[in-house]
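Hey all, sorry for the wall of text incoming. These are the four entities for the joint prediction.
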Amino acid sequence: MTRDFLGEFEQMVLLAILREAKDGAFALEVRRRIEVEAGRSVSRGAFYTTLDRLERKGMVEWEEAVPEDSRRTAPIRRFRVTPVGLEALRSARQAMEALSRGLDQILEGTT
Amino acid sequence: MTRDFLGEFEQMVLLAILREAKDGAFALEVRRRIEVEAGRSVSRGAFYTTLDRLERKGMVEWEEAVPEDSRRTAPIRRFRVTPVGLEALRSARQAMEALSRGLDQILEGTT
DNA sequence: ACCAACGTGACTACATTGTAGACCACCCGA
DNA sequence: TCGGGTGGTCTACAATGTAGTCACGTTGGT
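and here's what came out:
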């Protein structure tokens, strides 16, 4: 399984999925959230590729579902973060936090 | 200048440099800090390559200096994070924070 | 003075992750 | 039934992450 920790974009995808409803998130919703919150554009190709890789690593899973609030009838994939994914996310963040300790002043900035 | 934001390991390097004394940090000190704090091993090759890339992006700079507390007489490089680097670090962290908002419960875990 | 061991650093090559763009299928409204 | 939007795959490539090896000057022992 290659590596045991996440790239930054992968982390963002996991976070964005978690931010949607408890029962999972639809792909393009997730993509839109990343674009809005992180303020960067995400091409569909880049995005789906990352989802695939996360799936292969067992960090996300999905089931087919039909979005309620849309006129769409055909089911599409609804993603969810697995326990493995959550754990990876946690440890990635812990590492960063450990290194950031004591730097709050410097990192806040007046931006 | 390729991209305007940082990979995760690059972030770690910047953070670790900031954590050393105000007047800069020596390479292998930084490496050791990452290994200890983030709990992952870092090969020298990987490490210096990353320093190079950060330098090329104008995010770190260095000067020659002789470590005080060592018997070494020859100067080695002492690194410092540039304003550009600090800014990049801040914005990378802000993006992550924006996406993490409201997830503290989930992310803390009982690990 | 000589040699081994070590610290520092460059260079090479490769794996993983990040990214864009073309392409396909389906559904829907004009 | 044409065209456009949405959901998705595939391909190819760029950037980042990583290990390993080579080289050289220092240090320390003898």
